[in-house]
Amino acid sequence: MGEPEGKAVSNGLPPPPFELPYPDSPDVITSNLLRLAELTPNERRRFLAKNLISHLHQFVRETYLTTQEWEEAIQFLTAVGKTCTPLRQEFILLSDVLGVSALVDAINNPPVQGGTESSVLGPFFTEDSPDLENGDSIASDGKGEYMYVEGRVLSTDGTPIPNAKIETWETDGNGFYDTQYSNREKPECRGRLHADKDGRFGYRAVVPVAYPIPGDGPVGQLLLGMGRHNMRPNHLHLMVEAPGYTKLVTAFYPEGDEWLESDAVFGVKKSLVVKLEEVNDEEEARKRGFPKGSSFKLLQRDLVLVPEAKSREVFEQNAKEAKKNAPVA
Ligand code: BEZ
Ligand code: FE
């Protein structure tokens, strides 16, 4: 903001076309706000504004929020904003740990009979994944314990979807994404491949490990203050796209991890917990392209996409139901 110039002017809008009582009691403050929100021209935004005001005001009244608590909340949100950089989005992390990202994902990608369920995208997807062929590895040798991932991309009626695009990424065996290394020279532990004509895909990866979400900012402090850990259970991210189908953003979570039930960002769904098979066979290891040793883990799982029209139908039906229960329509 530069130096002010000339006479101070309003944003140009007139007083509201109705009378408002003076806001000299908590109830009048809320009802005036709700009446003012009626002026919002866009119908959806009007609905969102009224419900936001209604819930926010109710929170302040019900908790009898003190001035000090309000100041602390403002300081916290200011710190969250100041932590954001082009490479770090602390507000999304806040949304993640408060379960808002998982909730938005759950609402927008409701389970559809037979379809693979969604999971949170997270901040570590990048556009610069290398293009791979089936059978290739997303990880350089030495980045972790060997794992082979294979399955088919199918439609909910069981038909294979040829040529679906699969983006997949994970941390290395130390629990870090490539983007977390300041000396990153090229993408690591990520790749882009396509299912074959029968919907089949397969690639080499490393066994996922549990890792902490960034804990050195205000969101980390919030978790400590709440007595909550900042761990995500071991997982492999996948994003699958094919024309006519809803884009699937998901992850597979190998069973047995101690953080599965208390994921810091609420991404785990029961149907996404997978079994890793232990393969101990030197010939098989070579056949699948692992350069050494005789053992690897095998993750076999189909990825089932939902036709766009079906996703829309389920979303709209659920949205209609939810709107009936909104406090202000
Ligand atoms: C992830 O799984 O990559 C992730 C998701 C949410 C917050 C941090 C990381
Ligand atoms: Fe992750």
TrEMBL record:
Keywords: Dioxygenase, Iron, Metal-binding, Oxidoreductase
Occurrences of domain Catechol dioxygenase N-terminal (ranges): 42-114
Classification via InterPro entries: Catechol_dOase_N, Intradiol_dOase_C, Intradiol_dOase_core, Intradiol_RC_Dioxygenase
Domain of life, source organism: Eukaryota
Cofactor (UniProt): Fe(3+)
Entry GO MF terms: catechol 1,2-dioxygenase activity; ferric iron binding
Domain Intradiol ring-cleavage dioxygenases span(s) in chain numbering: 122-284
Protein name stated in the entry: Intradiol ring-cleavage dioxygenases domain-containing protein
Region Disordered, annotated ranges: 1-20
One GO biological process term: catechol-containing compound metabolic process
Keyword field contains Iron: yes
Native organism: Pycnoporus cinnabarinus (Cinnabar-red polypore)
Family indicated by similarity: Belongs to the intradiol ring-cleavage dioxygenase family.
